[in-house]
Amino acid sequence: MTVVVKIGGARAVDPEGALADVASLVEDGEDVVLTHGGSTAVDETLEELGQEPTYVETPGGVVGRFTDEDAMDVFKMVMPGKLNTDLVESLQNEGVDAVGLSGTDGKLLSGKRKSAVRVKEDGKKKIKRGDHSGKIESVNADLLETVLAGGYTPVVSVPMLGTEKSGGYTAVNADADRAAAAIAGALEADLVVLTDVSGIYEDPDDESTKIDSAATPAEFEGVKAAAEGFMTKKVMAAEEALEGGASSVIVATANAEGPITSALAGEGTTLEPGVLEAENEATQEAAK
């Protein structure tokens, strides 16, 4: 079994328990690929440098980072630099032979660069240019499988490798949840998304309304309806992971004892491939 673990970058997420759990899984012979976010650290570094982080809202209502050239420089410094190195260092201290990789290494994560994005400002749709972002279209699974086969544990960070219209390459930002989803799909792995809440709640303010699982399209519609704010992107990423071939997706808290093992045992909110069946059947029927 291969497990892809994504550790969130929110300040409230403590990675210590997850890293110890990675060590336990590796000791038991499991293949683990660790991925991580870091938006909070990027924002803090931008502010320390006197720059204001920029977030935009898409016409569909999803809020995301706008990464201009200066922000991209900070992103490259913080994500594959300090944060990735810190995690590799911590895993080495847990007895795990970890290898840090960015999405640009060996074309691990690649796709077209988006230099302009559609945004909604003051109720109007606009085009905002100068963005350094992209959507992951390809994962070099062979690279990850080679690293795993050698007895190493990959720790993967965005940026991804973006293809310019000229045919050249440039490092660009990509959503960390969707990066983890793409990797889990390519490896046909279980994806565990660790965050600062215990799962997806029917009422975002009430932990007792946690949704335990979704295995049918109707149940998944309930999950999507319940997701708000930062959880919206995680549900989008979960759907992409399952469409790509992931065995399951579990959204769970990082701040529990043995958070990965607990998530795989049923804690958190588990989403199974069956949530896509009706959608796929409808698509096939329409194509006839």
Strands, helices and their partners?
Layout: E1 2-7, H1 16-27, E2 31-36, H2 39-48, E3 55-57, E4 63-65, H3 69-93, E5 98-103, E6 109-121, E7 124-134, E8 138-139, H4 141-149, E9 153-163, E10 169-172, H5 176-187, E11 190-195, E12 213-214, H6 217-226, H7 230-244, E13 248-253, H8 259-264, E14 269-271, H9 277-287
Parallel strand pairs: 1-2, 1-11, 2-9, 5-9, 6-9, 11-13, 12-14
Antiparallel strand pairs: 3-4, 6-7, 6-8, 9-10, 13-14
Describe the protein in words:
This protein is of the alpha/beta class. It has a single domain (2-287), classed as 3-Layer(aba) Sandwich (Carbamate kinase). Helix content is 38%, strand content 28%. It has helices at residues 16-27, 39-48, 69-93, 141-149, 176-187, 217-226, 230-244, 259-264, 277-287, and strands at 2-7, 31-36, 55-57, 63-65, 98-103, 109-121, 124-134, 138-139, 153-163, 169-172, 190-195, 213-214, 248-253, 269-271. Strands 1, 2, 5, 6, 7, 8, 9, 10, 11, 12, 13 and 14 form a 12-stranded mixed β-sheet that branches. A two-stranded antiparallel ribbon has the order 3-4. The two termini are 36 Å apart.
Shape: globular
DSSP helical segment count: 9
Radius of gyration: 18 Å
What is the averaged pLDDT score? 92
Distance between the termini: 36 Å
* CATH class (first level) name: Alpha Beta
**Main sheet properties:** 12 strands, mixed
Say what the CATH topology is: Carbamate kinase
The topology string of helices and strands comes to EHEHEEHEEEEHEEHEEHHEHEH
CATH A-level architecture: 3-Layer(aba) Sandwich
The domain count comes to 1
Q: Percent of residues in beta strands?
A: 25-35%
User: Which blocks of ≥5 consecutive residues have pLDDT under 50?
Assistant: 279-288
Helix share bin: 25-40%
